[in-house]
Amino acid sequence: MKPASSERTRTRAICRYCAVSCGVFMEIENGRVVSVIGDKDDPAYHGFTCKKGRDLPNHLYHPSRLLQPLRRSEGGEFEPAASGEVISEIAERLRAIIDEHGPESVALYSGTYALGPPVSMLTDSFMHALGSPMSFGCGTIDQPGKIVTPSLHGRWRGGDTAFADAETWLFIGTNPVVSKLGGLPTINPGWHLTRALKRGIKIIVIDPRRTETARKAALHLQPRPGEDATILAGMIRIVLEEGLHDEAFVAESARGLETLRAHVAPYTPDVVEARADIPADALLEATRVFASSATGGANAGTGPNMAPRGLLTEYLLACLLTLCGFRPRAGDRVPNPGVVVPRGPRRAQPIAPKPAWGYPPLLRFHGLTNTACGLPTAILPHEMLKPGKGQVRALICMGGNPMMAWPDQIKTREALEGLDLLVVLDPKLTQTGRLAHYVLPPKLVPEIPAFSFDIEELEGMGPGWGYPVPYAAYRDALIDPPEGSDLMEDWQFFYRVAQELGLQLTACAGRMRIEGDPPMRFFPLDMETMPTTDELFELLTTESRVPLAEVRKYEAGRLYEVEEEVVLPREADCDAYFELADATMMGQLDEAARDVVEGDGDFAFRLLNRRQADTLNSQGRDQAKLCRERPHNPVHIHPEDMRALGIEAGMLVAITSRRATIYAFAKPEEELRRGVVSMSHSYGLDPAELGPDAPDGAPQPYSMGGHTGALASADLDYIEPFTGIPRMSAIPVEIAPAPDVIS
Ligand SMILES: Nc1nc2c(c(=O)[nH]1)N[C@H]1C(S)=C(S)[C@@H](COP(=O)(O)OP(=O)(O)OC[C@H]3O[C@@H](n4cnc5c(=O)[nH]c(N)nc54)[C@H](O)[C@@H]3O)O[C@H]1N2
Ligand SMILES: Nc1nc2c(c(=O)[nH]1)N[C@H]1C(S)=C(S)[C@@H](COP(=O)(O)OP(=O)(O)OC[C@H]3O[C@@H](n4cnc5c(=O)[nH]c(N)nc54)[C@H](O)[C@@H]3O)O[C@H]1N2
Ligand code: SF4
Ligand SMILES: [Mo]
Questions:
Q1: DSSP 139
Q2: Would the pLDDT of 29 be above 60?
Q3: Cα distance between residue 389 and residue 385, in whole Å
């Protein structure tokens, strides 16, 4: 790193405020980042930045950023402590807990910031070395159906249809224009959408709200939420009845067609109309436009995944793509053969299904187990609260904020408060951190190197993920952490605690490999001398096409001339197939056919989740420029519903679910379906701040905006039988004016 200069210098850099990892310029003065600017010449991001990235200086130098670890004193107050001491104390307390209660009493929660390397290379090994299988992540409170589906249906070794090549695209309950996730390339989605629209792509959106993405669509269906599986079953029925499927492709690559046909039989257009409240004609038109296109793709997002039957929705969507033959074929170009992520050749053949759940450990609730998507995080508070063998007594929370992210905030708080040890790794003292025994703040990019490996690797997650071009970026640390700080990198916490406990760690390279890729590799670490971050990145890229040393030379992003690839033909001995009629899913289809539309009794409205452009989950609420609406998290309601309920714009309303009540200011939104309300998530105050005597479900002060997760409950509402995600969207609620609630 160059010595700090008082002159303002502009340098290429990578923004890691969120996982999109834009290639940007950073301006640095006196060793501090003073601005973040788009880099028009970046060949993947094309100058894109967002308000969050541009506000990076306020994140790095915010007065609330923690610059040294905190320890809870005996009196209950936080006191600053040296990192070395904190590491030793945590190791000692972990050892005592394990000695008394066994290793499975220690759990890990990997939040949003735990998903990328280098920390993700060590977390599994750390838990394994401790002997605990209790490793949870945010995937099971996000879109578990998406990750589990390839295990039930199989996946395509030829990759996904590229958005740039598609004639049509179906977005179900995802708004990638804002969330930058789902179908559209994550990398500057607006740029890709504009180009696709110019060449005439037909976008279909299924969302009860007219979203920013829906505004660009050729067709927009605004159904009753929670009925996506019904709609997809109806679409499949139409495809099969009208012979719109790709018969040759299905015959060669899939099995179970006739069984699927029988199980979707009840879902006639009229039944779908009655259930999902979309006109039968609109369903027919959308299905015909979609299925008669030559190439296409589809994505479901958090909306349906968090609503009831999210897994079935994802499964039926995968079946629809297979039926339409929307899978890259032999001879099709491979948009990105892999730059730093080693990839095997793409082939026009399926990878067979494998068990999706039933992996150890068996939890003590609902027969839930480990799954292709990990352990069900919504059940972790239950495992903390229930005494007896298997009770979780210690939690390491890495880069997440359970109090604002886990469903059922009341239960989450009770569970976290009851722990013998809660360690939180976070740059801020969050609502979760306030309940912790130790908080360890990390160094942040660009105080540490940034690398694009995880973005490229995420290609395996489905269409839109990964880089649509052979791009890679690496940038060294550009500045020192703030003077006088005592910070470490997140991964170093796991390394140093393991060192104290005498555990051997093994770095894992390639967590997202699929059959046909070079297999995952494991590298035992030297536990005497701590490796550098770059040494870990070297391990990650031992088999990459372009060596890390080459990528490092270019100081941020660049396209690489890797040999062009096309999808190879099916191997002669391939006997894998896509499964169109998984028995569990067919059982759920039959059950769903008997569902009745929920009555309009006590909980007449359905609460939908939505992302806000300027904040990222619970992050950014303390950054004044990002919280335009601050202090509110308004509840969007259709004006006709407001009139019927006697609610005026800006009036405070109470939103009550079976679990709790939150408050929000009403904001009229014509473009919502009637009978639904829509709010952003992870807002709100820690209920602990209401004081120790506040009863469960006591109203939250509205001044910080209500937290919709407080309304969810794995005990009182639907929970997906295998992934364990409870209802977190389409939550039944009552809406009532509450102008007299004072806060
Ligand atoms: N700016 C910003 N970007 C983000 C995030 C953020 O907080 N801020 N979060 C990131 C994260 S962690 C994730 S997982 C992604 C999520 O990305 P997305 O899944 O695209 O999330 P949303 O924008 O909330 O879009 C969900 C949509 O589902 C609709 N919906 C709700 N319930 C239903 C239903 O039952 N059926 C149907 N068909 N639709 C429904 C909602 O109206 C909403 O428009 O975004 C990521 N990107
Ligand atoms: N009601 C409701 N609940 C939801 C959702 C919803 O739509 N509605 N969405 C769900 C989804 S999709 C997700 S992914 C989860 C998110 O769940 P979480 O990941 O648990 O929640 P975040 O708010 O993203 O928390 C990220 C934390 O990481 C911290 N952080 C930032 N940078 C770093 C870093 O470099 N190192 C470390 N150690 N920490 C860092 C931030 O300060 C923040 O506290 O929430 C889920 N919960
Ligand atoms: S989308 Fe915004 S916050 Fe995320 S990396 Fe890009 S500029 Fe940074
Ligand atoms: Mo997420």
A1: G
A2: yes
A3: 12
The partner residues of 606 in beta bridges, in order of sequence, read 676, 732
Instruction: Measure the CA–CA gap between 465 and 461, rounded to whole angstroms.
Output: 6
**C-alpha pair distances (Å), 720 with each of 141, 306, 492, 616, 657:** 11, 9, 36, 26, 19
Instruction: Give the pLDDT of residue 613.
Output: 86
- The distance from CA 280 to its chain's CA centroid, rounded to whole angstroms, is 33
Antiparallel, parallel or unpaired: β 168-172 and 202-206? parallel
DSSP count for the chain of H helices, then E strands? 23, 32
Q: Which helix (H) or strand (E) holds 454?
A: helix 453-457
Distance (angstroms) between ligand 2 centre and the Cα of 143 equals 14
Rounded Cα distance, 653 and 736, in Å: 5
Q: Quick count: other Cβ atoms within 10 Å of Cβ 80? A: 12
Distances (CA, A) of 339 to 80, 161, 180, 335, 563: 43, 19, 22, 11, 10
The atom of ligand 1 lying closest to the CA of 181 is 17
Calpha distance 262→693 (Å, rounded):
56
Q: What angle do CA 700, 383, 381 make, to 5 degrees?
A: 15
701 confidence band (pLDDT: 50, 70, 90) = very low
Give the confidence band of 184 by pLDDT, cuts at 50, 70, 90: confident
Residue in 15, 83, 141, 406 to alter for ligand 2 test, most ligand atoms within 8 A of Cβ: 141
Stretch 313-317: mean pLDDT, rounded?
Answer: 98
DSSP 626-671: T-TTTT--PEEE-HHHHHHHT--TT-EEEEE-SS-EEEEEEEE-TT
Instruction: Look at phi and psi of residue 705 and say left if phi exceeds 0, alpha if psi is from -120 to 50, else beta.
Output: left
Residues 352-372, mean pLDDT to the nearest whole number: 97
Distance 222 CA to ligand 3 centre (A): 30
Determine the Cα–Cα distance for residues 114 and 138; give it in Å rounded to an integer: 9
282, exposed or middle or buried, with CB in 10 Å at 0-12, 13-18, 19+? Answer: middle
Positive or negative: CA dihedral 462, 465, 470, 473: negative
Ligand at minimal distance from the CA of 706 is: 2
Q: What is the mean pLDDT of the chain?
A: 93
- How many A from CA of 303 to the centre of ligand 1? 6
Q: Whole-angstrom Cα distance, residue 442 to residue 399?
A: 10
Q: E strand or H helix at 502, and its extent?
A: none
Per DSSP, 446 falls in state: T
Tokens linked to 682:
């992870």
Q: Provide the 10 A C-beta neighbour count for residue 715.
A: 13
pLDDT at 705: 60
CB 176 within 8 A of CB 183: yes
Give me ligand 1 centre to Cα 223, in Å. 16
The alpha carbon of residue 130 and the mean position of all alpha carbons in its chain are separated, in whole angstroms, by 27
- 402 compared with 664, residue with greater pLDDT: 402
- Give SS3 for 228: helix
Name the DSSP class of 597: P
Relative to the alpha carbon of 179, which ligand is closest?
1
Query: In the structure, what pLDDT confidence band is assigned to residue 1 with cuts at 50, 70 and 90?
Result: low
Residue 691 confidence class, pLDDT cut points 50, 70, 90: very low
Amino acid at 541: T
CA distance 274 to 245: 25
pLDDT of residue 596: 83
Q: Spell out the long-range contacts of 30-34 with Cβ–Cβ below 8 A and sequence spacing 24 or more.
A: 30/4, 30/5, 30/6, 31/4, 31/5, 31/479, 31/480, 32/57, 32/60, 32/61, 32/479, 33/57, 33/60, 33/446, 33/478, 33/479, 34/8
Q: What is the mean pLDDT of residues 191-214?
A: 96
Tell me the one-letter amino acid at 213. T
Scan for tokens 């049509």, then name that residue: 168
Shortest-distance atom of ligand 1 to CA 613: 1
* Ligand 1 contact via 173 beta carbon (within 6 Å): yes
3-state secondary structure of 168: strand
Tell the residue nearest (CA) to atom 8 of ligand 3: 53
